[in-house]
Design a protein that fits this description.
Chain lengths: 422, 166, 827
Amino acid sequence: MTEHIVLRHRDLEGLDQLDVYLENGGFGALESIVKKKSPEQVIDIVKKSGLRGRGGAGFPTGVKWSFLSPDVFPRYVVANADESEPGTFKDREIMERNPFQFLEGVAICAYAAQANVAYIYCRGEFWDLTRELDSKIEQLKELGLLGKKLFASDYSLEMQTHLGAGAYICGEETALLESLEGKLGQPRLRPPFPAAEGLYGKPTVVNNVETLTNLPPIINRGADWFSSIGTEKSTGTKVFSVSGKVERPGNYELPLGATFRELIFERAGGIPNGHAIKAILPAGASAPILPATKEVLDTGMDYESVSQVGSSLGSASIIVIDETVDIAWVESKITDFFEHESCGKCTPCRDGTYWMKHIFERIMHDTAQPQEIDLLHTVGIGIQGKCLCALGDFAGLAVTSALERFGPEFDLHAVGNSSKAA
Amino acid sequence: MLAEIYTQEIEAILAKYPSDQKRSAVMPLLFLAQREYGTLTNEAISEVGELIGLQSTEVASLVGFYTLYHDRPGGKYRIQVCTDLPCSLRGAQAFADELCEKLDIRMGETTPDGQVTVEEVKCLAACDHAPMFQLQEPNGIHYYEDQSAGSAMALIEALRVKGQVD
Amino acid sequence: MSVTLTIDGTEVTVPEGMLLVDAAKRQGTEVPVFCYHPKMEPVGMCRVCLVEIGRPARDRATGEPLLDESGDPVIQFGPNLETACTMPVGQGWQVRVASEKAIQGRNEIVEYLLTSHPLDCPICDKGGECPLQDLTMGHGPGESRFLFDDKIHLAKHVPLGELIFLDRERCIQCARCTRFQDEIVGDPVIGFYERGRRLEIVTYSNPGFDSYFSGNTTDICPVGALTTADFRFGARPWELNSAASICPHCPVGCNLTLSTRREARAGGRDIVKRVMPRQNEHVNEIWICDKGRFAHHYARDPERLTTPLVRKNGKLAKASWKEALTRAAEGLKEAGTDLIGVASGRLTNEDLYNLRVLFGKLGGKAILSDPMAGGNLVQRYGVGVGSNLSSLGKRDAVLVIASDLHEEAPIWWLRLKQAAERGATLIVANARATRLDDYAQHNLRYDWGDGARTALGLLHFIGADPELARFEGDRALKSAARAFKRARNATVFFGREGLNYAGTEALARACALMIEAKGRLGEPNNGLVAVWPRANTQGAWDMGLRPDPRGLNTALEGAVAAYVIAADPVGDESASLEKLSTLIVQDLFVTATAELADVVLPAQSFVERAGTFTSGERRVQRLYPAVSEPSGSLPDWKIVAEVARRLEIGLEDTAAPLVFERIASEVRDYSGLSYDDLAVVEPQWPEVGGGDNYFGGTAYANKQGLGVQLAPHRASRPLRWKAPPRASAAKDLLLMPVTKLYDQGRTLRPSKLLAARMAPLQMTLHPTEIERLGLSGAEEAEISWDGRVERLKFTPSTEVPPGSALVPRSVGLALLEPTPVTVRRPN
Ligand SMILES: Cc1cc2nc3c(=O)[nH]c(=O)nc-3n(C[C@H](O)[C@H](O)[C@H](O)COP(=O)(O)O)c2cc1C
Ligand code: SF4
Ligand code: FES
């Protein structure tokens, strides 16, 4: 594939400048729907395109929009720009380099949802980026592309950025809404889902940056065009963030369904120093680790195929592990991450990640008893299916999948293990 | 008093949210207070609370929850090195160790002149440009990517000079 | 609408919308909970209530229930366990609480919790009544697989202020305490700090944990993380005895349990170790305020009177009961009918009844020292039987006028706040802002003294008496009146802030007429409630005492002999008693009045005796003796009867229930009542205390009686409104006594724990007034009125209406009514 849809700035220099964006058809999509299409029609187009959420869960975007409680106003749209999954750095590139397409996408979503206010929740670390977005929003306001009565219609839209302050959990949509309301970023009970009771208790759409950035091209070029890209159930392209042991880490936009092999070996240049690839984390810290078998490498990176081989695509942040890396160490880093980021609201996640972290400390110091490695598995299993949000499941799954698939690497750390001495 | 020094900023922040949802302004106001006071002291916390009708405890809760707020003194400049898994796979740990060694402090500590604190942080969404860190200073956070200990030290020296002047 | 489901094979039918935990509880199945509390919204945090839920399967296309071959519904169980505390029940569900999967899931949760919990049960205050301990026995793993070395070690004795201590290691992050403070009380002064396993409870308020309700968090904390400074390390729960009681501090009538223990330090006597709420869903639910919880120390104050005193050679000297009683009787006899009895609503009905009968027989008069009118109107217009503030909601209205409920009756404040949050129309009318304003739909602000005028304005709209047209108010008043009129049920709470006696009289009448105009007199949640200064002021009216409209001082001036019980006219209103030839004082302490007395008789405190109080909502409730009395003291009714005997008047002198029998045979509204009736209990929800204290907390279940609410009686004479008295002409400033929960009254001062929070003796006034009166920069102001001159400290507050200054009652300045004063800068 040569053409970029989301990372269009890679094909068009200066796309982060408003005049360039406008010259290349910018805001035509918004104008056309505001003038000619009802919100329901927009929702139908997006449903038909098959677009699925790029934030991790892969939920069909148009379907989500159609869950908004009817007749309840005001409504809100919130762009999830909290990007904090280890190994994920796509939303940042989109917002830095192709900001107007993203903002136009937010506006399209807001129109479809009949929201007059949209918030962009950026992780606090994106400080400079957010200041830039603020000035881009100002530019749009000056040109009348945001504000009251857009394109001489009755529709008005205001956009605001909001900075987080360092908490991975705020990427989880209900925690994000709590945080935006000025509270601790701890997930809410669901139901009610945000579409029914979201920000300030009002119907709210939360979408990922990349999801939103797909909207202008879908409107411009049609649902059929979009759904012709990718696989039957995973349509369109995806921005894959590749990190770890590869020659050329970075973002690569490929159709959904492209194989791990293509991404890692063709795009990202393969493994440095002639080493062999050992494992893949297809969704940062938040999905089971996959051994880099031939079967796995030839698997298409779409939501269905990745789950068929025992993991999930999530936000498509591919961390590549080569043969020089100890899987026990990988998992200890991941466990540290989740222990640090657990919000503390529910018991299994809060105390389970803490417990696992302590077992890992001994594992990494080679002072763990063999039965502690079994215990680690038990704890990891015990967390799953009991937590208030998916973070706990992620933490448990990461560890149990690694133990199941790379058990011997953990055993090497146990006290009295003879093969280690050799 | 924040209310007097930053009247316009505060108004602009409050204007972002519905008028009956002032609480939403607490996070930006905390950044503002941190800019003014460096550290979120109890006084700063209660000032922020008063601006939006929250109890100090409610405000302090947020300060404790979010890592970018600091209520314990540290350096004026915080070098926050990402040592999470993807960066560590690309040499971040060695970079962090070398930086600490050059500054003659341990991770988490502040240089004796009180200017620079080096901290470890989780993933900053810049994994393809490891080693990297962000610099948190009173009024902002900036990314520094593809770093070496040498480039980081050059920045720190420049900051120290700037910090002494300011 | 009800829903039928099956829990562990047993069918149960419950109201639609009930949560599964509650349904299980009703059915008798224990689903353990930590974070869930039946008084709060579910949050599903702790995850210990996991169960398996099977739901009837439906056909995807048609939505019709699927049936198996035998025609039974197909039940589908999800892959994951679910939290029973967050799930409203569903028709046809099959729930498994005791399945292996569910038990294992819960065991895992308990094991996770124990990873961070210390194993210090033997020294924990909660030991013996600890849900975590019980659940670990019942549900936890046999032994911990968590290495002890990994346990987090945190501070164990963290004061969250003077009243509440936190053991950070024991906290299981269930957020019951923080949610209680935020959701129920509206004082979010404790909160979580940090996140993950590092979450800890903190307070940033000043003083720490600044809330009148803080003690309740120690009851609902499901572990020993929160304890009161009063009880911490005081005793083990299983060593305690307990007795039911009623809080003596305000007219709400909160039901209490007094936990007692014999104490070497108290000379082997049993003493009250802690005061706990006792559940009465009609009155206080499972809450009490901190005054009720912590102000009990006066009962064992070493300065308590234990022997009668008689004046000899100008000095009070110890005397025998015989001598003192004889002397008292003689003094009364000598005075003929120029006698006066004075008593306050601190006494029980039994005491007040005997006193009133005694004075009736002697031809004198017994009057009430609590300076507020309306008790007779509450008898006629009081709330109907079955009234319950918890049941107020969308269709109901409440007017609170001339009262600062947060300070005067905290549990009413709390329950009205919650009623407003449930949608009841709350109207708050006062001359200044009070803490109930935040929850009111209508805030009416009037000038000091205009409470009655405002009420008449409201009445004008509600009752349409053309004569009232001259009290017509502004738009805000009209819209409040309209809301009041539109509501189905209406209750009025009236107080005395800013009013003199005549003002309260006019106010009470206007409020009573509003109730009458609504036309639902006698129905539940309709009626008049007086915010009395004392716990049993209503009982005093019911027993036939009432204040002298001319004022206590005037009444005393006309007498030759006075018998003063549980009142301190000298200390409270600078009464001059020199002219009396005989002064008998009966009290717990040597008060300022007692210092002038000829005879001082030692009485018993509420923890030592039986009796009844009648609450502001006219619920008659029993006190039970909890500890033995200090030797030498007697219950008030008994002392009065002993005095009477020496005057050849026969009063009941053997037992409190027998006095009550006489009340029941003689006092209208109490007719036919007995102590047994007052001891009747019925099942209450939620279930608290007892074996399953994880559910509602450690508040005590009520086994000793819910009391009886009296029905208002119809009177034949129509009630007329009264024009409001003229406001006193302002001099420099109107000095306004206001009630503070923590004053410096004699029953509060011995509680050292509360010392730091007691209101100081100082005026609060608007900053512009400080300037106007030339007080800027001065430390004190010199104020004078009626020949009195006082120096007072002052602080500015923009909340105080200009032209006035607030000064707390009972902190050292003898002042009961609003008083115009002149102000000078002291030189
Ligand atoms: C622990 C956790 C962290 C998450 N972090 C992010 C994130 O950083 N960015 C994001 O877009 N979605 C994140 N999500 C997913 C969001 O909850 C939500 O599904 C998403 O924003 C919906 O947008 P989409 O439908 O466009 O994907 C996270 C979910 C969980 C459980
Ligand atoms: S202190 Fe008690 S009530 Fe509060 S969170 Fe901890 S365990 Fe729960
Ligand atoms: S999650 Fe149900 S009781 Fe805590």
